[in-house]
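HUMAN: Mind sharing a backbone?

ASSISTANT:
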Amino acid sequence: MIRRNTTLWIFIVTLALVSFGTVMVYSSSAATAAYQKRCLLKKKAPELLYQITLFHDPAFLNKQIVWVALALGALFLFYHVDYVKLGRFSHLIMAVAVILLVMVLFLGNEVNGAKRWLRIGSFTLQPSEFAKLALVIFMARFLSEHKDKVKSFLKGFLPVLAILSITLILVVREPDFGATVVIGAIVFIIWFIAGLRILHLSSLFIASVPCAVVAIIAEPYRLKRILAFLNPWSDPMGGGYQIIQAQIAVGSGGILGRGLGAGLQKYQFLSEAHTDYIFAIVGEEVGLVGSMFVVLMFVLLLMLGVTVALRATDYYTGLLASGIVTMICLSAAVNIWVVLGMLPPKGLALPFISYGGSSLLVNMAAIGILLNISKTTEEAMGVNTRLKYAFGVR
C-alpha cells in the first residue's frame, strides 16, 4: 500500500511532523515568551509588572502559525512547479543563495556575536537554510548534465568543489561551523550517490580534517564545546551546562513523559528549548513514546524518499530526490544526536518541529518538489494517487 501510494504517504508524514511540531513549539516556548514579555514590561512599564500574572504567552506560536501557512503555500507551489524546468534555473538559484550569504555578513542581524539572519520586519530569514536546497538543486542538475565527466578531476570534481567551497566559506564566516559541517556532509553524500571517484572523495575528506581542527582551535568557544562534549560534568555551569540540562530533560520524561505542557526544563533551565533543543522537551513531556514517534516519522520519510529516488526515470530526478531526503533526514539526525549528547552542541533546527521560519519554509518547499517527483513517477507506473486530486491536478 505504501509503495503504491508513496506520494500520499509522504504528504501524511510531513503533515504529522508539522502538526506535532506546532504543538511542541507552543509547549516549549510559552514560558520563554512570557519571561521575555515580563522583562519588557519591567523595562518599559514597571508599574504594570505587578498587576499581571503571566506564565505563558503564545507569541512564538502566533509567528509559527504564520510560517506554517507560508510553508504550506511553498509546498503546494513547488508541487505544481516543473522540477525539470526548476533545474534549468539552478545556476540562478545558486547565485541568489550566494548573494544572500554575502548580504548576511554585512546586513545581518547579530545575535550572540554571529550574523546568521536577515531581518524583514518582525521576521528573520536564515540564508544558510536556503543555501542547502540551492546546492541540492544545483548539484543534481550539474552532475546530471556532466554525468560522463563525473570521474574527471578537472571537468567533474573541481567545478562542484569550487561552488561548495565558496558556499562553505561564506557560512563559516557568519560564523556557523555546525551548518558548515552539515551542508558539506549533504553535498558529500550527493557526490557519492552521483558516482564521483572514491579517490577524490576520500582525499577531500582527509584534507578537510586538519581544516576542521584549525577552525575549532581558532575559536575558543568551539574548542570549549568539544571539551564540554567529552566531559560535560567537568564544567556543569559552563560549557557542559546545555548538554546536562538536555539529558536531564530527556531522562526525566521516562516512557510516557511528564505530560504535554508539564515539562520543567523550559522554565529558563534549558536555553533554546523551542529551537535547537526542542527534542529534549519532546522527551521530557511525551517521553520515549513521543520521541520514538518523531524518529519513526523521519525513518519512514527516509524510506519513502529512497523509494522515490530509486523509481526515478532519469539521472537528474534521482539525484534531486536523493539530495532532498538527505538534506532533511541528515539535519534531523544531527539535531537528535546533539540533544542526546552523541555529538558536540551546534545550532541546528529539527526539521518540521523546531520554531523558526527559514528551516520550515525550505524543507516544505523541498517536500513539494519530492511530492512532484513522486507523483510523476507514480503516474508513469500507472498508480492512481489520490493526492493529485486533493491538490487540484486532473
Summary: The chain has a mean pLDDT of 88.
